[in-house]
Amino acid sequence: MNIIVCIKRVPQTADADVRVDSSGKDIERQRLSFDMNEADIYALEEAVIFKEKFGGNVTAISLGGPDAEETLRIALAKGADNAVRIKAEELGEIDAYKTAQLLALAIKSKPYDVIFSGCMATDDAYSQVGVILAELLGIPHATLVTKVEAQEGKAHVYRELEGGLLEHLEMALPAVITVQTGINVPRYASLIAIRRAASKQIETIGKDEISDTSLTLNAEIEELFTPPVTKRAEIIEGDAEEVSTRVATIIKEKGLI
Fold first, then answer.
1. Which helix (H) or strand (E) covers residue 40, if one does?
2. Does the predicted TM-score (pTM) go above 0.70?
3. How many domains does the chain divide into?
4. Is residue 190 part of a domain?
5. What is the SS3 string spanning 221-254?
6. Using one digit for the tens of pLDDT, what is the confidence trace for 189-223?
């Protein structure tokens, strides 16, 4: 089975002081650390699990700058057989649609039975690339997948819906599957595997290799800003009767009863 997994290198912002840069369209990146996107870690693990079950090989693809090769080498250390970097530095402004177009161009030249990706990137939270990629390739897709099983050219996919519901789908392969975090337990890369990955060749695709001139940008960032504070918490003090009276008054003032 030929398996492709799309991964992304993203800044780790959970415990960082994130600031908008002078352009107003990006964040200051100099003091941030970077790693593989969280959901993509699970997508990579699912791809390797498929390889272990069905044989074949895993190709990891990333659209990014030269630093993205560090993330691709981690993918190689964790079980990917091949790695491809699409040179973002040569391709100008990029949004979710253009990302999917570039991935589709890279993938079309390779054999594939299933394509995995994370359900969402933590840096932009668009959740669009996997769906658009499937449409461009003309194959089925499923998003927010929590379990997937494959047999005889088909995949049984379980998706997470709102309200705690799950959906069970049967899909023909090839297909694009965007996975939810928690679908599996990602493995760690051993020191030996990391050393081996350091010497592996990473294929690069730049503007010279992309013959398609119809790449389009559907969205452009106008401005990044910190959300204004519009509401504040009110601490209600007093005994139980005073607190309950005040709460009842607020509820009436807000028109909730």
1. helix 38-54
2. yes
3. 1
4. yes
5. CCCCCCCCCCCCCCCCCCCHHHHHHHHHHHHHHC
6. 999 999 999 999 999 999 888 876 678 888 888 88
